[in-house]
Amino acid sequence: MNAAQDLTTLGVTPFSFHSDQPLFRVNSGVSLHEALHHASDLLHIAKQLAEDAAMTKETDRYAWSSHYLQEMVKAVVDDVVKVLDSPVITQERAGNR
């Protein structure tokens, strides 16, 4: 079975759609460990910005910042899930039971 540290992102998950076209895409070849670690960091910041947005009535900049960070995190996590749910990985996991 592939060791977890050998698994990398596929780079097939787009995000930030404008006129039905993605502006960005998760890069391929990033270790899943690093990708999830970065996603966790982005979620932490997004959570703090969302909390600030809830407390600040004068501006929506915190809410929009949080929104865009969450969009990036979702793309990273979705790309990781595609790797973990791939037929090869799924078959290898089933064979080790």
Textual characterization of the structure:
The chain has 97 residues and is mainly alpha-helical. The protein has one domain (4-81). It has helices at residues 32-55, 61-84, 87-95; strands at 14-18, 21-25. Strands 1-2 form a two-stranded antiparallel sheet. β1 and β2 form a beta hairpin. α1 packs antiparallel against α2 (61-84). The model has no long low-confidence stretch (mean pLDDT 90).
**How would you classify the helix and strand content by structural class?**
mainly alpha
The N- and C-terminal alpha carbons lie at a distance of 12 Å
Strand fraction: 5-15%
What is the N-to-C order of secondary-structure elements (H for helix, E for strand)? EEHHH
Keywords, separated by commas or semicolons:
elongated, two-stranded antiparallel ribbon, mainly alpha
